[in-house]
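Q: Here's a chain of 489 amino acids. Please give me its 3D structure as tokens.
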Amino acid sequence: MNDHILDLAGGFDTGTQASWRALSAKALRGADFEQTLVRRSADGVKRGPLFTDAPETASLRKADVPHLAERGWHITPVIDHPDIDRANKDILADLKGGASALRLQIDPSGKTGIAVATRSDLQRLLSGVYVDLVPIHLSPAPDNFETAALLAGLYKDRGDLANIHLGLGYSPAPKDMDKLYNLVNWVRSHAPHWKAVTINAAMPHEAGATSAQELAFMLGSAVAIINRLLDSGLKIDEILPLMDVHLSVSADGHWGICKLRAARMVWASMAASYGAADTSCTVHTTTSRRMLSKLDPWSNMLRLGGATFAGICGGADYITTLPFTEPLGLATPFARRIARNTQLLLMEESRLGQVADPANGSYTHETLSHNIASSAWSLFQDMERRGGWPKARDWFVAQINEAAKHRDERIKSGEIKLVGVNQFANPDVRQAQVLPRPVVKPKSGTPIDTDDFVTALAQAQNGRILPVPKQAEMFKPIRLSEPFETGDT
């Protein structure tokens, strides 16, 4: 065996940026360099065209995630069919088909999720699930307090509680800070390996936020919750392990990688500012809803593949790939299988989970990650100067609306291309099947009604029902292709 490494660059002159710029100017033949070759993100971050150096950084450390083994990440389908028995079939099919964690979208009215209202409903839903092997997370919501009590109450007395991993998905509204402390304190005392609170930065993304705005919201809302819990007497190293983060990833795979790396960077900086011993965080990603189109749902498969790639290579711990028919209605078994297999192909055939932080050392990814992080941190500081979250809400929403308006104009003009929407649009698209949404009969009973989590657990145990969600949307979700679907272009 040879003892030396072949020098592939030997014999070639060392290039410089100046020489490259000179050659670029020659090729452009008088065209403006900035206008022709330089692209910028919605936050104004330069995306090239050339990176020849990068900030020094260590590989980004992920959090310790249960039951992950050699998988690299958890394939985490969202379960949302209103009918409980049908939702249970979806769960078992997903687990048999390669999923390793579950995300439950629960809505007792059945309008936006599984019509679970009581403890017995939840038992039916999770029948056949080996919960000691499968982490279960609630989709994050500001009204998850009672749902969290229902789920926690189902397993709190199990002898193998240490092997059961739940994410309660509580994303409290500002008025619910007493509920927050009660829930967090109970989880800390009884199941400190669970995730009690979720920072749901996917919300502003779906409303049109830029990457920096999404991460600034992540920081602002996390700081508001952390400060409230610190004021209640908890310590930072008791709080952070009980939190996780939800982010959306879109079809631009390499930009998504940089955004997720930037998210870990700014989270680590925020945690370090409090003196935390562990500055890592658990990250869930969901493929963006706003990028999906009704016009040509088959083209959504391309978008979902790019977004899933971003989640994997960006280091997400739990990844939800939505069915390609998500904008049309309830997914068929075929659409759910395609969503699972998108991840399985990348896991088992491309082997993407075998390398930690694959973008580490890439000039492009390292530079863009740092620039997104810098932009997000600056925006977060602006928010803090305005009183922090939620005092700066009106200002922040206005920022998002402006970004969404500018993006919408660029899509309508054709500057931003959407396959199947304003590029390669097919007037005769084969119909994609979805399931009819069943009519759910509301359950009668006394709702869980308390700000105390121990009392909520007892009420759930005694058969009280989940209240129908009444929380108004903090951010109004959009879809980028909507103007073309309504003819408003």
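Q: Can you summarize the key feature?
A: The mean pLDDT is 92.
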